[in-house]
Design a protein that fits this description.
This protein has four helices and two strands, in the order H-H-H-H-E-E. It has 94 residues and is mostly helical. The chain has a domain of 63 residues. It has a two-stranded antiparallel ribbon. Strand 1 and strand 2 form a beta hairpin.
Length: 94
Amino acid sequence: MEKKPKISEEELDRIIEMAWEDRTPFEAIEAQFGVSESQVIELMRREMKRSSFKMWRARVQGRKTKHLQKSPKDMDRFHCSRQKGISLNKISKR
């Protein structure tokens, strides 16, 4: 059985947010918070409504961008290329 790390409310919110993001791999969550993929799934099951969990689980299961090993080789490691245009919480005007 995996050891469960102690997580603050703020960290819990961030983990859920990262898990919902399509381009954030489980490995990034583990690197930042020490929470494995199976622990993230368990956490999402516990914290979400059943219907929301089922929808999320169906969406991320087997998704290439949620697993670094399945990701395209040119994909930046922990963030989407579109994030590079955003700095200091200001989105560049078009």
